[in-house]
Amino acid sequence: MPEEEQTPAAIALLHPAAGVPAIIETEQAFDAALAALAQGVGPYAFDAERASGFKYSARAYLIQIKRTGGGLHLIDPIPFGPGHRCFVELNNLIAEEEVILHASTQDLPCLRELGINPQILFDTELGGRIAGLARVGLGPLLESLMGVSLAKEHSAADWSKRPLPEEWLNYAALDVELLVELRDKVHALLVDAKKWKWAEEDFAAIISAPAPAPRIDPWRRTSGMHKIKKRLQMAIVRELWQARDEIARGADVSPSRLLSDAAITELAQNAEKSPITNRKHLEKILRPLGLRARWLENAAIWITSITTAMELPEDQWPEARSKSDTLPPIKLWRERFPEKFIPLSHARFNLAAKAEELSIPLENLISPELVRRICWSPPLNSSVQEALQALGARRWQAEIAAPVLEAALLETVALELPEAEPTSESAEE
């Protein structure tokens, strides 16, 4: 029996080949970096570090850039600020060049806030998904395609800290050290799989996508809302969430550091049973959750918010469900909306099979939300393909999914499927 082929161990990438560059904090240093980048060739590899979980804002606290022949540069954006002359010049440099980002939708907003607006994008994570790779994080991609391992020990650090530790800067520099070479590997896979045009269309759609509309009733997304059954409890959650959000925005601190979502829902359930009127009562309720001192810094505000909610007349309590155009949960379709569930059951099964055939995740083949909308309200004055594109599907996605959906809409008996679905209910919601 032949021995199994052993995959060579990945080589740890510990430092950038040219060392960790000094962080750029002055106009003189920024100008020198711009001059070096202008002398380079090919695409620009970008990354950004934020302080997610620490700050309210999603601003960038470090920008990493590398270009072949143009060097690797670490820019502290805080001394410059949005719209600074140097960012304007950087944006002019990249105007007609490809910009490489990994998981671009995470970094584009904070780059755009500074005035960096890529026009040509290559997203190595999304490219990996479309190519059919199982693991598409930056580390796994570098390991599987380039035989290099990347440490991620500082990925959740507070990047607003100053000065930034040298080991953090080393970690940040490594995020772009091989990004150009990784882009070429992913591009080759897409071309070989005849999926490059799909990826191009997706990359272009990300660049041209409008800013997301403000959420309706964002407080409804508080973790643990499934425990909140009564409208008065919802009113308490709303008041606490809004008070916390106002304080967090003003102090630029992550809301969860002031009061966790679990604490909000726990307070709402307890307050509805027995009014919370003092700090000691508040502390007693929160202690089983792992009480943190910072939760009590604004105890008076939390108590006032709870009291305000409790005193609201019933006609000012939130509605049980949001007035958005959200569709009913899928678990209700079979019993309450069988005529909608019939085509959905066929569409989900056959689209999952199509995704497997094409070696692409189902959610990248077509958004499950769009599938549900077509099954819930089939188009009357347009084709399914046109309706999908009007809802935001890429042309290539609509071309593949439309025939499957058209066939599903003609079915009269639901498919009996196991409860487990290719895409989780939470992802579809």
TrEMBL record:
InterPro entries: 3'-5'_exonuclease_dom (IPR002562), Exo_C (IPR041605), HRDC-like_sf (IPR010997), HRDC_dom (IPR002121), HRDC_dom_sf (IPR044876), RNase_D-like (IPR051086), RNaseH-like_sf (IPR012337), RNaseH_sf (IPR036397)
SMART domains: 35EXOc
CDD domains in the cross-refs: RNaseD_exo
UniProt superkingdom: Bacteria
Classification via Pfam families: DNA_pol_A_exo1, DNA_pol_A_exoN, HRDC
Domain 3'-5' exonuclease span(s) in chain numbering: 21-191
The protein, known as: Ribonuclease D
